[in-house]
Amino acid sequence: MSKNLNAQTADPADAAALDFDAIVVGAGFAGIRTLYELRELGLRVRVVESGSDVGGTWFWNRYPGARTDSESWVYAFRFSTEVLNEWSWSERYPTQPEVHRYLSYVTEKFDLRKDMQFNTQLVAATFDEDSETWLATTDAGETYRTRFLLTGLGHQSHPYRPPFPNLDSFQGKWYQSARWPHEPVDFTGKRVAVIGTGASGVQIIPLVAQQAEHVIVFQRTPNWVIPSGNHSLGEEDWTEIRSNYDAIWEKVFNQPYALPFNAANRKPSDVTPEEQEKILEHAYKQGGFRYLFEAFDDVQGDEESNRATSGFLRKKIHEIVRDPATAELLSPQYPLLAKRPPLGHSYYETFNRDNVTLVDVSRNPLVDATRNGLRTADTEYEVDVIIFATGFDAVTGSYRSIDLIGRGGVHLLDKWREGPRTNLGAMVDDFPNLFLVGGPHVPFANIPVVIDREVRWIGRTIARMLEQEQRFIEPTTEATDKWTSLIPELLDGTLLVRGAAVNSWFLGANIPGKPVGALSYHGGAGNYFAALDQEFDDGLPGFVRR
Ligand code: NAP
User: Fold this and answer.
1) Which of 30, 312, 424, 452 can bridge 437 by disulfide, Cβ–Cβ 3.0-4.6 Å?
2) Domains of the chain with CATH codes
């Protein structure tokens, strides 16, 4: 049954008719999950999405090799047992087309598409203090009045490309990983430059190398690339997963990165060097992020665990890559997790191919494109195709696409000039009735799970407001200050803080001029979920409601 929020009060200020009870921006994991939750509350919801279909990240990032780095059975919507039972991923790490199919399937299953407006960018939204509603404007010039506004903009949605002034003069073709064309790109017979060796570049390089005549990889900072250990999943695997799903989710909700892993319950110094080697070899064979968490505890905080785990990887790089100079260039000189480590699918092996050249641009940077390729200060590299896998203005950059104007005419990005401010990552003071879904200050973790728990909290909060006939919610300044100051403190307790020196996106350090500091919650996903529950059970003391 639809609950028209206008009908709940006789307040004359409410004369302004609502077009919707809630507008959700984005139709990726966050938008889909949010629409489902709000529909269950009986709200009239409109999802506004700039792409032509659902998917978000999985709509835009269609580059060769795009696939998840989380294990498929937990890179999933937890809220529906039916979905968990009906959908069987075909691989441990599904490809972009499969994730896109999954999101489409969930959309159709719950008939969500009818509340989605595609090819539409929400460009601005202003909080109208008199009616305590949001006025949201699209790029087509429509203006919608809504009680609640929810942003599911994605962590990595605002692509970054280095400003090469002469890119237009380049006679070949260029592509950006995060804006990949829908039709296949053929690299046969082409000389291809790949700029960037983050998670996107690491997935692209091995596949393009199989097709292209030659690939030049321009590397500024190497990454610790962990072998994925990908494999297909058959019926037997799914029977086992489904019979253990409760236990798997229990692990997910308690593991710092919301992944279904067991704690190692040991440090390297607890075992002999020979045992260390065996343990690391076993974890390496398992592959994926298990390598980081199931060999030794606290790789993110403990120097000794980090050194042992990264030292073993360094040895593997040198074993795999035949040319010692290339192997050395590929070996990072910073702790594991100071940059977000990608999973590799024959990544290091690719550098043994005759048609792949690694060029170190850490000291001699690429400065521009030319008619025929790319150049550093002293060398031109002639290529036919350039691929920019150069990352994103992450987390807060996603908010550049909408001018959000809160109470007193304050613009969100002005408020966040020195870094984001939120309470619980869910709301911002001076921005009543605006909920951020999967935005800044939520855990740096397996994001569908974070979204699921956060949206559940938002749903329960709005349900409580409806029960109590309230129309307004805003975090207190004190609670916002407290949560915001917790964020750097949590980061400081980890080795991730060293990411500032190696351009890590989770600190904003990859974007020239962006303030460097924690953009996410580094206190462990389980603690974040507990904080959400506690806040709700305590009656939402960090929020004003009326
Ligand atoms: P990224 O990790 O920020 O990597 C960008 C790369 O571009 C870096 O190697 C960077 O070098 C390089 N770069 C930027 N400007 C450059 C320049 N002017 N010259 C030379 N190199 C330059 O971006 P990403 O690979 O797109 O990944 C971002 C995040 O998205 C990941 O960490 C992950 O969270 C998510 N993601 C996930 C998956 C997955 O789960 N499968 C896949 C892709 C992305 P520096 O390191 O020196 O800055």
Assistant:
1) 30
2) 15-158+394-473+524-541 (3.50.50.60), 162-221+350-391 (3.50.50.60), 225-233+257-338 (no CATH)
Q: Which residue has the tokens 């593997």?
A: 316
- Residue 176 Cβ inside 6 Å of ligand 1? The answer reads no
Tell whether ligand 1 has an atom less than 6 A from the beta carbon of residue 340.
yes
- Which two tokens mark 531? 């904080």
Mutate which of 510, 516, 519, 520 for ligand 1 pocket (most atoms within 8 A of beta carbon) = 510
Backbone phi and psi for residue 65, each to the nearest 5 degrees, phi listed first: 95, -5
**CB count in 10 Å sphere of residue 3:** 13
The finding on whether 199 has its CB within 6 A of some atom of ligand 1 is: yes
The pLDDT tens digits for 476-493 are 999 999 999 999 999 999
Separation of CA 225 and ligand 1 centre (Å): 12
Tell me the per-residue pLDDT of 487-521, one tens digit each, with 9 for 90 and over. 999 999 999 999 999 999 999 999 999 999 999 99
Q: Are the C-beta atoms of 473 and 427 separated by less than 8 Å?
A: yes
Q: What is the pTM of this model?
A: 0.96
- Residue 147 and residue 133 in contact, taking contact as beta carbons nearer than 8 Å: yes
Which residue's alpha carbon is nearest to atom 6 within ligand 1? Answer: 196
Give the residue whose CA is nearest to atom 37 of ligand 1.
Answer: 199
